[in-house]
Amino acid sequence: MASPIVLGLRAAQLVMAFVILGLSAYVANWYNVDTLTSSPSQINWLLFCSLFTIISIAYIELAPRFMPKVAHPMAFVGLELANVLFYFAGFIALSVFISKLLFCRGSVCGSARADVAFGAFEFLVWGVTSFFAVRDNLKGGFNFRRNRGQAPLAGPQMKESQLA
């Protein structure tokens, strides 16, 4: 069972993912509709990151409850660390992109800057939950190793004959 702190951080991650999704979609739409160029890859990357976060949170929170056979502790750690890496790359790339623009004004620029800020916060929150996930898995000895050395639950594979 997850602690109340982790559940609160998950809620914050989900809310920020939807905020980033909206901001990135707004900026991408502006590029695709009002300019002659397509939206920058940095915006598209943060758009992907927000969708990946929504799917990750759904798996991390719902799989242990409803599909325990597909819930693996190392998959949780992998998703946590992937989100940390994705948001780190995303907010850094978008901030560098914005810093190299000749001018940046208006609601689109403000949305892109807010996208960077929310991406940085999302990176920090995923970093905290990743720390908790790695710590809990190291403390538990990685769940898939716990039964090493024990006999299988199916019973003996061979039995001696009673004829002799």
Automatic annotation (TrEMBL):
<keyword id="KW-0472">Membrane</keyword>
<dbReference type="GO" id="GO:0016020">
    <property type="term" value="C:membrane"/>
</dbReference>
<feature type="transmembrane region" description="Helical">
    <location>
        <begin position="43"/>
        <end position="62"/>
    </location>
</feature>
<dbReference type="InterPro" id="IPR008253">
    <property type="entry name" value="Marvel"/>
</dbReference>
<feature type="transmembrane region" description="Helical">
    <location>
        <begin position="74"/>
        <end position="98"/>
    </location>
</feature>
<dbReference type="Pfam" id="PF01284">
    <property type="entry name" value="MARVEL"/>
</dbReference>
<feature type="domain" description="MARVEL">
    <location>
        <begin position="7"/>
        <end position="132"/>
    </location>
</feature>
<feature type="transmembrane region" description="Helical">
    <location>
        <begin position="12"/>
        <end position="31"/>
    </location>
</feature>
<protein>
    <recommendedName>
        <fullName>MARVEL domain-containing protein</fullName>
    </recommendedName>
</protein>
<keyword id="KW-1133">Transmembrane helix</keyword>
<keyword id="KW-0812">Transmembrane</keyword>
<feature type="transmembrane region" description="Helical">
    <location>
        <begin position="118"/>
        <end position="138"/>
    </location>
</feature>
